């Protein structure tokens, strides 16, 4: 049986890890290098590194910090932020990333996913979808949740997977940082639409939220969270022990 993955997320702004609520009100947390080193040794299955203002600021991702983070960890690393071209994929992979996450860049150029998957393989390309309910519909947002594209989210995600994205990170803006639980309705819709791994992001507030996620939606492959791990509210070890006790397969180190 395939084990469920637990993935901490480093949202990086100006070289520091930050965290907000509903993608707003960002506060400083820690050094990305220190946190990455900690999570690598604490039992995380993977790590996600987002340069969260690169797209909005129209610049390339900070590679110096990324290189340092990659050198400190021994688990797979997914990197996103300011990925607009195949050259950006190449640059980030050469800095030590295992997978590259794209959002705004794919919205601007839908062929980017196809081109990158052809060069590096589907398993390397992750579509990170920032989704929010607008008038009862799931809409895709760009530029770190700042810009409503007007696109229907499920069809957009299906299109990206059809073009070669090998994994989906679903970021629910509605539940982000609220700590009231993952967005089960939104995740269910995505899981029923695609046949690639789906990572749940946004809303984790306690261990039980992960148990509920994997029990309710067995198709979800991984749970991603930030603040509950960053601030020590939940330890990855305790989380995995609880999941295992509830019959959910995890890697226990």
Low-confidence stretches: none
Q: Under the CATH scheme, which class?
A: Alpha Beta
Q: How many domains?
A: 1
From the N-terminal CA to the C-terminal CA, the straight-line distance is: 17 Å
Oligomer: single chain
Strand order of the largest sheet: 1-4-5-6-7-10-11-12
Order of helices and strands: EEEHEHEHEHHEEEHEHEHEHH
Summing up helix and strand content along with how strands pair, one would put the structural category as alpha/beta
Main sheet, how many strands, which sense, barrel? Answer: 8 strands, parallel, barrel
Level of helix content? 25-40%
Q: Would you write up a description of this structure?
A:
This protein is α/β, with parallel strands linked by helices and 253 residues long. The protein has a single domain (5-245), classed as Alpha-Beta Barrel (TIM Barrel), CATH 3.20.20. The longest helix is centred in the N-terminal third of the chain and has 10 residues, at 32-41. It starts with a strand and ends in an 8-residue tail after the last helix. The chain has helices at 32-41, 63-72, 86-94, 104-108, 111-120, 153-162, 184-191, 207-216, 227-230, 236-245; strands at 5-13, 16-21, 24-30, 47-51, 77-80, 99-102, 125-134, 137-142, 147-152, 167-172, 198-201, 222-225. It is globular and about 45 Å long. The model has no long low-confidence stretch (mean pLDDT 92). Helix 1 (32-41) packs parallel to helix 2.
């Amino acid at each position: 049986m395939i084990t469920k993955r637990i993935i901490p997320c480093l949202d990086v702004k100006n070289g520091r890890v930050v965290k907000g609520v509903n993608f707003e009100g960002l506060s400083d947390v820690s050094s990305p290098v220190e946190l990455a080193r900690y999570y690598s040794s604490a039992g995380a299955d993977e790590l996600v590194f987002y340069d969260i203002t690169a797209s909005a600021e129209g610049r390339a991702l900070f590679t110096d910090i990324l290189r340092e983070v990659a050198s400190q960890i021994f688990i797979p690393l997914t990197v996103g932020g300011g990925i607009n071209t195949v050259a950006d994929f190449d640059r980030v992979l050469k800095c030590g990333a295992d997978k590259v996450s794209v959002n705004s860049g794919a919205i601007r150029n839908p062929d980017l996913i196809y081109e990158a998957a052809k060069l590096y393989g589907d398993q390397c390309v992750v579509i990170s979808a920032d989704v929010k309910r607008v008038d009862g519909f799931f809409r895709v947002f760009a530029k770190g949740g700042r810009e409503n594209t007007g696109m229907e989210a499920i069809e957009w995600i299906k299109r990206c997977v059809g073009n070669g994205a090998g994994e989906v990170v679903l970021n629910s803006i509605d539940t982000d940082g609220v700590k009231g639980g993952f967005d089960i309705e939104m995740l269910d819709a995505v899981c029923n639409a695609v046949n690639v791994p789906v990572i749940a992001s946004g809303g984790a507030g306690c261990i039980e939220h992960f148990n509920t996620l994997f029990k309710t939606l067995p198709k979800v492959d991984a749970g991603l969270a930030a603040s509950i791990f960053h601030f020590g509210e939940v330890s990855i070890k305790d989380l995995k022990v609880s999941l295992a006790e509830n019959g959910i397969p995890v890697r226990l180190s």
